[in-house]
Amino acid sequence: MAPKKPNRNLQGRSGEEQPFWTANRIWLAWIGIIAVFVLMRATIINIPLERDEGEYAYIAQQAMHGAVPYRDAFDQKPPGIFAIYTAGMFIFGRSAEAIHFFMFLCTLGTMGLLYRLVRRLCGTGAGLLAALVLGIITAEKGVLGSAANTEIFMLLPLVGSLLCLVPREGRPGWWRIVGAGALAAAACWIKQVAAMDAAFLALWLVVAHFSGSERRGFGRLILEEGALILGAVLATAPVIIYFYATGAMKDFIYCVFTYNISYATTNIDVLDRGWGPFADKFGKILAGDGLLWAALAAGLVWLAARGRRKLLLYFAGFLTLSFVGVCIGGYFRPHYFLQIAPAVAALAGLGLAWLLGRIAGAGERTGRWLGYAAVTVAVVALPVYANRDILFAASPATASVILYGPTPFVFSSELGKEVEEHTQPGDTILVAGTEPQIAFFSRRKNATRYIFFNPLAAPKGTPGLEENQKQALDEIRRAKPKVIVNLLGIYGGTIFTTQSDPYFETELAKYIREEGYGVVDYWQALPEGAHPEMLNRFGRLMPADIAAEEKRTGRKVPTQYMTTVLFRP
User: Fold this and answer.
1) Which of 205, 418, 497, 566 could share a disulfide with 517, CB 3.0–4.6 Å?
2) 195-211 vs 174-188: helix axis angle to the nearest 10?
3) How many domains does the chain have?
């Protein structure tokens, strides 16, 4: 239905609800939305964990046994994601399916909050359509919707903070403002870039103060901003107390703040940085959701044409600052674009509601219902078609290869189980590279806190690099890992490059030789469709298998994706 004009304060219910949206019809609409939600996720729930998921899962798993993030396992993400993974794994288990299922539940929660927000501003129809759009775009391959990344969890408290400032009537009370600040801070403790959306809350309090019909003194605005800050402080205090009490404050500050500044300002990782990756990633998102982006534009145009300046400023400001959050770090990976998903969904829902409202006012009843059906089917069918290679992949491993290429993700679970079988619970292992999910599946402690080696592969002269490299080598020598899973050289662009300081890599290779580690077997993920005669495309390849294949085909088996597993003698 067409969105109705909002009340004078923006936050109130937008006029009288049209009789069409009875309680039963709202429930039926939600049943349809959830059906689409399940359709978009049923076949991706068991996609193998990728490396970011692996690092969160490993740190959460170790935390369950008394380890402290940053002190015992290096990571540059804020601690909120580890708390989320710990909670999810405690409730649902430690499999990829359990982790993804928990993520889907959180996404459903975000959809519910966005529905309430948009309903209060623009009407029930727009709210339902916004929830539908959010459920679709957060599952798409263009944003790596199958992965439980920080961005998808960050959206839940972010949308909650927006809802706190949009009461049913009038201006938000003090506790709502405090709650908004607390939820915004919680989002920042999941991913730092949420600070841009938190800034939107502070700016909107200013706009609402000066544009409201009820004039209040400037002191009131100062108190409201102070209440927002108070909420942020209340949410932050437990984080600070925890790391201070565990003696990990120095490590916490270095990993979350100091290292991140270095990461953003030096070429520690050259992939996905700059205009080229942005145009590539964002272009794919635009191409896959052309109808929804057209609906977003229609929503903006409708607001402008109808003189809804305050609503236009609200949604355009939310979208703009969310987009700045995507861009602020200078890296453009697909899941980073999830930050704009709520704003995109809200505006697209508004545009679709306007379109359905136009259909409702034209033609006979049969024609109107055909129009409704055509729009709804297009909204759902086009994204399903665009993501058909993932949604209808032959296997979870195949879907992973389509998304990420032939990586160790596809056999990490099986390799982790083999490492577990060859070790005792008290043994340490070393995953040499950027695949901490292998350590997670092995249920063994990594020999060094550097569960991925990117911080050790920075250019010479990078602040803190020499200390990090020496610390990692000392930890490995003291731990004497029972098993080394060697992935070095597989991802030359994301680990050691020609610009990297070679000290750590050289010393680690020397240690492996001196301690007499011997090769036991190889694992390899071949590109989909390559070497179809080989039985284990996604798993173990013994040296004899490789030699036999090369002899049979007369061509060399590609080894750029080879994982060498070494055991202590």
Assistant:
1) 566
2) 160
3) 2
